[in-house]
Specification:
Two copies of one chain form a homodimer.
Chain A (H helix, E strand, L loop, with lengths): L27 E3 L11 H7 L15 H11 L6 E4 L1 H13 L6 E4 L5 H8 L4 E4 L19 E4 L11 H10 L5 E4 L11 H4 L5 E6 L12 E4 L2 H11 L9 H12 L1 H24 L2 E3 L6 E6 L4 H10 L2 E5 L9 E4 L3 H12 L2
Parallel strand pairs in A: 1-11, 3-4, 5-6, 6-7
Antiparallel strand pairs in A: 2-8, 7-8, 9-10, 10-12, 11-12
């Protein structure tokens, strides 16, 4: 009975549940929004030629090459960049560094479900703001005293995005608190708020290499904001784990940003496949929320969402369903290759 | 002035300072206790043959293959194993999960300096217990009410180790609190307490692949203890970052444990070089604390430690000095190759 050694707050922690990572190889996996395409072929050479003698040494704790690469790519300075072991770690540090405030932080009731888990972990007060019926964010709800604001843009699992001018209005109205824009899916059609970080001290943008850069396996995420926000994150990071990113991951990440053509090409393919899939789904009586991401959030006019998920699974296709009020009629379907989506549509036609 | 967005506790955080990772290639780097030898040559093939198509997918969040491998290697069950992004992350989760108690935790005044940083990060009360004059741990000081106990064995930066029977006595005397044994250096000559985790519910052992397994670049650490301690750590991990270890690191780690001959061979070489270096240093009027690690903690009878460090640096050799009471007369010198240590001794002879 060694739960007696647990800290008291540990008993109340309710961890995040990630999407299933099945070990069956043949499945069509449309449940965790991974990219259907591999990362740039340049990665092959990086791995093959990596000097294994360097593995005995600690990695660069600052990920300096990657910071410089991101700074150049986004036309900012390297002291505007913070690097972490996936955007989940970056987000955890953001909550620890900035959101332990007297007022509750505000976030949409439907968004990335890890946000409330961090609040629980760090004992942070929060208040959920309901999305409108069409799943758009109701901006007027954020005009109240708060300890910070966070949302995903485009939002997940809805796929809807706010415009830059809407975000700018939010930043202006909340100059006393930090506004965190989680842009995990931004490359698939939304506008990034990175340019706003250069004009608004209260704007922090989070991105990941797990989606549009096809490097989910390597756990690389980053934050962009003004140098004092970055300094705050570095302070938490250096009180937690000085070396969050392996040497191999640092090199892979730089390579992913150096092959712009490949990036544009694969993102365009995903967007085109999304457009095709949306039309096919609508023809099958699905309501499809307009998406700026690499997934579609859909609801069938008559069939039950959980039952569709089970039927698809029986045919070797996995999609995600959230048994949560307001969205339990919906399925989130990641965009795969054309072939995979054709097989999805064919499977749906048999239901 | 965006420090206004910092959480209040952030202003009081004092981060850990890791040893310098200089970017100059020619230096003899004896300051961060890295292994002088590369990891098993099998890693070369793992990298060259890694299917880059798998990089688009999230890694196994449980690191199941690595857990099974460690369970087999240490003759325990896989539910006795917790995996993290370096032992620093594992330690951070340990402090969060178990050390937020009403009584202060106890630790040696001279030990891995990250321990007090975690206390600061998670607002944990602690009490430092002074080492004896010969730098051994004074076990009687730990016979008092406490919220937990942590120490490195062998201890760093001293190099001294407790015996298993001493640790067992400590576990018996403290059955109401958790005793964490940080075994980062254990493979270089001390006895592991892993077998004690099978008989004492209050024993948790931490190890790393950064030292004896030559994989510092990849950030891989683990904890071994009874299933309910592991469950507590998983709960924190899954409230922080579901996927701490990259796919590439998981594979490398397994390979490191599958090449036992290479491991034994390189560890033996380090120990032999340590024996030679100790004798040479003693002949040069250094006092050398008996070491069970891959470093030596040494003090010269007449020369000032910080000055020796500076002179060595001028000759391209980096060692570590801690400007801390009680140990500021000492240098910590990592064990390099025979050639590197011969050059160190030659440099010292010129002082």
């Amino acid at each position: 009975m060694s739960r007696q050694y647990w800290s008291k707050p540990l008993f109340d922690l309710v961890p995040y549940t990630p999407g299933e990572q099945p070990k069956i190889v043949d499945l069509i996996k449309l449940n965790t929004n991974e990219n259907p395409y591999p990362p740039t072929p340049a990665i092959k050479h990086i791995l093959a030629e990596f000097p294994i003698d360097h593995l005995k040494r600690y990695p660069d704790p600052e990920s300096s090459d990657l910071k410089n690469c991101l700074a150049q790519y986004h036309n900012i300075n390297s002291d505007n960049v913070f690097i972490g072991n996936g955007s989940d770690e970056v987000l955890a540090h953001v909550f620890m560094a900035f959101f332990r405030q007297e007022n509750p932080i505000l976030m949409p009731d439907i968004s990335y479900s890890f946000y409330t888990v961090y609040c629980n972990l760090y004992d942070i007060k929060y208040q959920l703001q309901p999305l409108k019926d069409d799943f758009s964010i109701s901006l007027e709800d954020y005009a109240q005293p708060n300890g910070g604001i966070i949302f995903a843009n485009p939002n997940a699992p809805t796929g809807r995005a706010l415009s830059l001018s809407q975000i700018e209005a939010l930043l202006k109205r909340n100059s006393d608190s930090l506004v965190v824009v989680d842009e995990a899916y931004v490359d698939f059609g939304a506008q990034s708020a990175i340019e706003l970080t250069q004009r608004y001290d209260n704007c922090l943008v989070i991105q990941t290499l797990s989606k549009s850069r096809s490097l989910a396996a390597q756990r690389i995420g980053f934050a962009i904001g003004n140098p004092e926000l970055i300094e705050g994150l570095e302070r938490v990071k250096n009180s937690f784990n000085s070396y969050p990113l392996s040497s191999v991951s640092q090199k892979m990440a730089v390579a992913a940003y150096q092959d712009e053509n490949y990036f544009q090409e694969t993102v365009t393919k995903v967007i085109n496949t999304r457009t095709w899939t949306q039309a096919e789904l609508e023809a099958l009586d699905f309501e499809v929320i307009p998406s700026k991401t690499n997934f579609l959030f859909v609801s069938h006019k008559t069939l039950d969402a959980a039952k569709i998920m089970d039927s698809l699974r029986a045919k070797g296709i996995i999609v995600r369903h959230f048994s949560k009020p307001k969205i339990d009629k919906y399925l989130r379907i990641s965009i795969g290759t054309d072939d995979q989506m054709e097989r999805l549509i064919a499977a749906l036609k048999t239901l």
